[in-house]
Amino acid sequence: MLPSRHFSVLILGAGINGIGTFRDLCLQGVDCLLVDRGDFCSGASEASSRLMHGGLKYLETGEFRLVRQSTEERNILLRNAPHYVTPLETALPVRSRFGGIVPSMKRFLGLKAKLNDRGSVITKLGLSLYDHFGRPFRAMPVHRFLGRQAAQRALPGLDPAISSVGLYYEARLDHAERLGLELVLDALADNPRSEARTYAGVCSAAGGVVEIRDTLTGEAHWITCNVVVNAGGAWIDEVNAALGLNSRYMGGTKGSHVVVDKPALLEALGGRMVYFGSADGRVNLLYPFKGKVLIGSTDIPVAHPDEARASDEEITYLLSVVREVFPGIPLSRADMVYSFCGVRPLPHADVGDPGAISRDHSIAEDKLPGTNVPVLSLIGGKWTTYRGFAEEATDRILAHLHTRRRASTADLAIGGGRDYPKSEAARARVAAELGALSRTSSETGERLLSRYGTRAKHVAEAIGRSDGRRLLSLPDYHVAEIGWIAAHERVRTADDILRRRTDIALKGEANERAKAEVEAIRRGEAAKVN
Known about the structure:
With 530 residues, the protein is of the alpha+beta class. It contains 16 helices and 18 strands. The protein is globular, with a radius of gyration of 23 Å.
């Protein structure tokens, strides 16, 4: 059996760790093949809390290196991807002055301790350290505190038992899946010798030849390479098994989230995220998300990542825990418009508390059976640190290839973040230009800019060349807009558009009518839409 293609590097898994490594390697001129059994960012990478955060809670376990890297990488992304990564003022409710000191000391020393009260002393110390670690590339203000009355004015309806609120900044990731896609497109533009294939899985490996089969067409390809990168996330051990390796690297936990349509809660947040420890010792969050409110998240061990679902129990918990912060704004199932669940790619660990498992990353190395081809498994990692983790992985791969790094991604704008307007006046001018290109309005131009960054120019031109029709089920989307996505953004299923190229599903709008319209456009049957 002859291989159909040789690549220097074969990357298995197109979540953010695999995509980040693909993008960095392509920048170095290394030819790579990136494959995933689903779409880009269709696993855990599309089921995160959608934050670029430094991990304030990791200070409690002494993971200072991770916090430092996280805050630095967050600030880099605020600069390189301003169309999708934006500052998010965050409120930390405080109920006491000295609460949590002893449990915090125990956790810092690696001892078991339930921490359900973080007083002002602990909070002040943590935020001061956080500001210190975030000094490089600082992009946001330092923390401050609000007393009881000021906190009530800032967050109307806040539990009166909350004595003060610490305010600091994190960053929201408005559209994680599109950021991943744009990294892939940038990589392919930099190195046309590389390829990226979705809906393609590893079937077998023998004699250094890896069989990749397209799950939609059944077409098979046989690949040889110098280095294999296993970026399968929670599925790393399963991918290694397909390669003929026996590993037990992963021990993921599932995290469920819900999106609710509750105007009173949205108004109470005032544009902020509330990040709080609940009475049961968990850490939860809620923040404004696409005109609604996102609530997360759980942290539950799961035997197999394919079995992860947002259970009724988790949904009930997430809806009810909000009452600990806003007791006068009850939530019910009727308020929920969407729920999602993903599995964190955490390392295997025999611990009773899932929250005690390190969120840091590491790289394990094996050999493809019967060869000297290294197989590097990317363990752990998260959206915030993906670029730094990819840089570490790339440097290790370059060493195996006996070549040197020639460029860094640290100062590289991503996709629609290039030439992004830096002021409100500049933003208004770009929105007006997009409105003129699309033959619509500045309001439409602003919507396109928010969705696609400066890549919106291509979408606007497509709309301008069309008859201007809109989807009946989704009137803020043009037929030509969906058509452009289908034609230019490596789409293979309607779900790719509904769940990852757009925020239609996240906003709870992926009903049967919308699915039918999008599928008709994807198939080139736009005439049937209206």
